[in-house]
């Protein structure tokens, strides 16, 4: 059962499994390893192999004879007829015994094959564990190797941004795995400890959204202005369900629709949460105070603190996805969503601007800054998981003209057929600044044996000199920290968390709610009588299936969802006829930009020409997607 395996990750390493232990060996060179493997395999061939099915084949030379039995019976005076009966009985018993031996032989061969397979899998698992353990031990200098990697700036980045000379694009992705170890410095306990140290230090580095903070770069004598927003009471829980939910497995739905046209299959609302993709866009702005803070740091001419807060804002949008197992509703063509949040100083608006491909555009105005984006998801189904690659650029522009642009990282949803559903975000995020600094963040992909998932590491680079001026560490579902200075200049064995300053921390004060929605997410679909009078008929809050799901009226929600999806399948025809979005236009770069006019129309309650896309066909608005079903 011995086997020899060449390592795929190291061209000098080989592994020998003897049947009782595993030997991990490293040769001088690749050629030396090849010579050793050839010699070991040759030596193995000199010895008998394990038993195979050929070893159990019965010999053709074996002949069963009854001559001795016949001779003995004749001596006793037994008649010929009785002797023949005895021979027949004996041959029959021998044949039965031979069949039993063959069955045992087949069972033995099957057990041997199973043993070989288990040995192979065990060897693979042992090798993986050993490789990861050695990597952790070799990088136990707590980021010392991270610094060495960061100092090896390379222009061989595999991404399309390779040709750009922006500061954040100089780093190569080849060694990303090196500085993404899973040491305890980024464990939850370490992060909480660092957060506690920041609060207890009294140095003005406490970045609490309800507190005042000092300029930790330029000294405590400079403070950024805190913007005071009015208090607005919002709901903090969903209505109690009116019906008992009937859990349905995705596998049972797939099984029931084998051979059918899947384009006509309507998934029940049990797989949805009571939010639309348009509302999810606004959910990314939950921690918008980070952008307010970035604005104020810029006014203090502290561009470094500005981009650090922008980077924290870019990461914070992923925090609410932890524990969320249901998908948002896909908006209808022309569906919109508004969010007027004076308690955050925000006015947000989004619209579904294209059906094929499905593109959602949004625009948000804060105090002294604007944010806009359009997004399209390219999905890949891998059997047990779905990979979602976002396509689109997010833009943040401050009133002084400085602009930051970035794209989202890949999201994968696992165990969609069996097991507990969970999502992970991974990839490289480059935040390109038009001013002095840019940033590169790496979201680490979670592995099977990872004790410390959801890690985010990165650095800020000076666009003028190419030097790394700050390091960012944290987790996208917990907190983000920064350490000033070039990390490559730190001594070996340096622990970054001893100097880490808290930039952002996820709000964990809320209790667990239905669908695992945060208090901010719960407020997104709230519909008050005063708001109802102001909304256009295309707003997501008015979508009936989504509203019924929120109220726990599952049968009505399923019925409405089926009706709306049947109408929505006709949206491609509407788009082919030249349909254009009402509030967004494509610019010269192919991106959708808000053209204005929505809030003015809302103020006047003037929604002329806006179709009732959620209602029945009125026969008067032939540009409405709901009217296409009868055409």
TrEMBL record:
Keywords carried by this UniProt record: Coiled coil, Lipid transport, Lipid-binding, Transport
Chain's role: May be involved in the transport of sterols.
Record domain PH: where: 1-45
Native organism: Gossypium aridum
Annotated InterPro entries: OSBP_sf, Oxysterol-bd, PH_domain
Listed PANTHER family: OXYSTEROL-BINDING PROTEIN-RELATED, OXYSTEROL-BINDING PROTEIN-RELATED PROTEIN 1D
Family assignment from sequence similarity: Belongs to the OSBP family.
Domain of life, per lineage: Eukaryota
Chain intervals with Acidic residues compositional bias: 158-173
Coiled-coil parts of chain: 87-135
Gene Ontology biological-process annotations: lipid transport
Keyword Hydrolase: no
Cellular component annotations (GO), alphabetically ordered: cytosol; membrane
Region (Disordered): 153-173
One GO MF term attached to the UniProt entry: sterol binding
Name used for this protein in its record: PH domain-containing protein
């Amino acid at each position: 059962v011995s086997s020899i395996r060449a390592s795929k990750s190291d061209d000098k390493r080989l592994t020998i499994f003897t049947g009782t232990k595993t030997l991990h060996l490293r040769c001088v060179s690749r050629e030396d390893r090849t010579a050793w493997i050839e010699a070991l395999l040759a030596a193995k061939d000199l010895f008998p192999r394990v038993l195979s099915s050929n070893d159990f084949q019965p010999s053709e030379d074996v002949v069963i004879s009854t001559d001795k039995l016949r001779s003995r019976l004749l001596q006793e005076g037994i008649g010929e007829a009785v002797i023949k009966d005895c021979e027949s009985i004996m041959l029959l018993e021998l044949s039965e015994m031979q069949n039993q031996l063959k069955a045992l032989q087949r069972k033995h061969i099957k057990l041997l094959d199973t043993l070989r397979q288990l040995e192979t899998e065990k060897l693979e698992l042992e090798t993986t564990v050993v490789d990861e353990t050695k990597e952790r031990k070799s990088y136990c200098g707590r980021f010392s190797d991270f610094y060495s990697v960061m100092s090896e700036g390379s222009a061989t980045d595999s991404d399309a941004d390779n040709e750009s000379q922006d500061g954040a694009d100089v780093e190569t992705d080849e060694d990303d795995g090196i500085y993404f170890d899973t040491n305890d410095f980024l464990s939850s306990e370490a992060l909480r400890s660092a957060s506690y140290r920041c609060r207890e230090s009294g140095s003005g580095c406490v970045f609490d959204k309800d507190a005042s903070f000092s300029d930790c770069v330029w000294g405590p004598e400079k403070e950024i202005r805190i913007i005071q927003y009015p208090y607005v009471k919002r709901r903090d829980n969903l209505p109690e369900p009116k019906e008992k939910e009937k859990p349905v497995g995705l596998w049972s739905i797939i099984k029931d629709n084998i051979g059918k046209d899947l384009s006509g299959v309507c998934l029940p609302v049990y797989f949805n949460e009571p939010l639309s993709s348009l509302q999810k866009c606004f959910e990314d702005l939950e921690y918008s105070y980070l952008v307010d803070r970035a604005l104020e740091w810029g006014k203090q001419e502290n561009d470094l603190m500005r981009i650090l807060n922008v980077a924290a804002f870019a990461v914070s949008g992923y925090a609410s996805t932890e524990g969320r197992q249901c998908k948002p509703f896909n908006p209808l063509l022309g569906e919109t969503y508004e969010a007027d949040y004076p308690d955050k100083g925000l006015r947000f608006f989004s619209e579904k601007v294209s059906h094929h491909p499905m593109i959602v555009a949004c625009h948000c105005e804060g105090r002294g800054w604007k944010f806009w984006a359009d997004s399209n998801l390219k999905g890949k189904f891998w059997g047990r998981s779905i990979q979602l690659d976002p396509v689109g650029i997010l833009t943040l522009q401050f009133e002084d003209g400085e602009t930051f642009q970035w794209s989202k990282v890949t999201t994968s949803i696992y165990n969609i057929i069996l097991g507990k559903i969970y999502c992970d975000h991974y990839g490289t995020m480059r935040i390109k600044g038009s001013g002095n600094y840019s940033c590169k963040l790496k979201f680490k992909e979670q592995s099977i044996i990872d004790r410390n998932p959801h890690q985010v590491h990165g650095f800020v680079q000076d666009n003028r000199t190419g030097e790394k001026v700050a390091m960012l560490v944290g987790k996208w579902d917990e907190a983000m920290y920064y350490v000033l200075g070039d990390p490559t200049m730190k001594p070996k064995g340096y622990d970054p968390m001893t100097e880490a300053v808290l930039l952002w921390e996820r709000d964990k004060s809320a209790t667990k709610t239905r669908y695992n929605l945060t208090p901010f997410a719960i407020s997104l679909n709230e519909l008050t009588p005063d708001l109802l009078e102001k909304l256009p008929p295309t707003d997501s809050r008015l979508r009936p299936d989504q509203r019924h799901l929120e109220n726990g009226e599952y049968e009505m929600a399923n019925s409405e969802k089926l009706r709306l999806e049947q109408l929505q399948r006709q949206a491609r025809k509407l788009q082919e006829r030249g349909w254009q979005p009402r509030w967004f236009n494509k610019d010269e770069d192919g991106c959708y930009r808000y053209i204005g006019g929505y809030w003015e129309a809302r103020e006047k309650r003037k929604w002329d020409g806006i179709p009732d896309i959620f209602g029945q066909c009125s026969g008067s608005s032939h540009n409405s997607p709901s009217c296409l079903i009868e055409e």
